[in-house]
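Z., the sequence and structure:
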Amino acid sequence: MTRILVIDDHATTREPLSFMLEQEDDFTVVGQAGSIEEARAAILEPESHIDVAVVDLGLPDGSGEELIPELRRVNPDASALVLTYFTEEEMLAKAVAAGATGILHKSASVQEVVDAVRRLAAGEALLTVDDVVRALRHVDLERQKEREIRLSFEKLTEREQDILQALADGLSDREIAERYFISPATVRTHVTNVLSKLNAASRLQALVVAVRFGIVTID
């Protein structure tokens, strides 16, 4: 009997899918979860050995990819089938890198999901070696880009960091000049240096990246 955990934040998807999976003689749904928190509780439940987890990536308290390593840690032989509307290469690559063994779009039919679960439970691979290698390379490239961005922030002087935060505070060049007792021309020079060091095309782009990496805060 294949024991299945269904993780999806939409009950209108999760409950019908669980019902349909239960109709298969060799399937049993041992749990349902609508969030990371609920899924973790289900995974850690002592009596709920899981063979296949059907995982949605877009959960209200995080990405479903976070659960895959935890699932495999508790159930080393378990497989994770990602069922998602997302098509972004980065997100899907991260899911594969985290250990997903299959990916289906949510437009897939119930029979396609049933077949995928059955194949995974039988030990078949739905992803090729090339799929996995490509995903790992993509994730590694993204991590490298993030390291380079973080290093670029380290190049900023203390005053340039102040100017960047002032921009995040919504201050104009004149207001920034008044705050730091410098001329508007000097402010513009600092901004130019910030954009150059961050390889940003505009103030907005610099702020978006700075907020993403927690370099500045927006109230």
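The first helix runs from residue 11 to 22. The chain has ten helices and seven strands.

Let me know what you think.
H.
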